[in-house]
Amino acid sequence: MIGREKIESVLHALNAAENDRVNTSVEVTSARIDEIMAKDVEGWRNGVHVPSRDSEREVERKAFSALVDYNRQFELMIIDPPFAAITWTIRGTFQDQQIAAPGCSNFEFNEDGTVRRYWMYFNPADFSYRN
């Protein structure tokens, strides 16, 4: 069975890849995330099924392009192998407005340390333009 230390290491690598977006392209960032995800990964974003990495990559392209100074910080991490849960806040500039968007992600890991399934929850309105 995959251990707690491996899962924690993978989650920190995922966060580092996303937060490095400010220093690299969206494509390089997504390629680093690809290495952490299983080939047959599937997910759910606010209850909507995301059947593949290809589907998620399209969302990443939009998110990482819209928030050029994207930064996600973990607040809480709970690991019970092969599962993990994190709460986080994404900060950045969207349409010249500072945003702080809290959310959470749950993961199921394979034995090789890749993400088999994930569930992500956030309020899309946190990423909308506000006066």
Outline the low-pLDDT stretches. none
Number of helices: 3
Which percent bin holds the helix content? 25-40%
- Find the count of extended strands (DSSP E, 2+ residues): 6
Mean pLDDT rating: 93
N→C terminal distance = 50 Å
Given the helix and strand composition, which structural class is it? Answer: alpha+beta
Would you write up a description of this structure?
There is one protein chain. The chain has a 6-stranded mixed sheet with strand order 2-1-6-5-4-3, with helices on one face. It has helices spanning 4-19, 26-34, 53-66, and strands at residues 37-45, 48-50, 71-80, 83-94, 97-109, 115-122. By secondary structure, the chain is an alpha+beta fold. Helix 2 runs antiparallel to helix 3.
